[in-house]
Write the structure tokens for this entry.
Amino acid sequence: MRHIKSYLARDHRDCDELLSAVEEAASTTCWTEAQSNANSLVSALSAHFAKEEQVLFPYFEGDDKTMAQVTAGLRAEHARMLSLARLLASATAWRDPRSVYDAAHSFYCVMVHHNENEERNLFTMSDELLGAQADRLIAQMEAVAGSVQGEQQ
Ligand SMILES: [Fe+2]
Ligand SMILES: [Fe+2]
């Protein structure tokens, strides 16, 4: 049986790697590569957030007010991260090193906190409470991510 935490944490690592690839390409003025990686980051984030917001979070929202507040906070951070990643993609299109640095730094600060929080709390809780349904939930998340990525092409 698969684990929700390792499945979703893998997406977090992939996004870390894409951000590093953007910064590395920008630092050597490989702007086409920087832009392509930034666009891939926006796409990967959109798919990952859809998995969480459409499949996982609803299991915790129900009647539990505290958990509903937790996921509302995470959803707000998703919106902030997506807008910073889009800003980063624009900065690579402008070929402006300062804007790339600023957007990458702001994005990184929000992402590190957000991902650590999810992995330590919500994902761990997900495997404890929903572990028996993990295979089905992961299949649903794959389907949601596929449709988001299909819309972006
Ligand atoms: Fe998240
Ligand atoms: Fe996440």
In short: The helical segments are 4-27, 31-56, 58-61, 65-94, 97-130, 134-152.
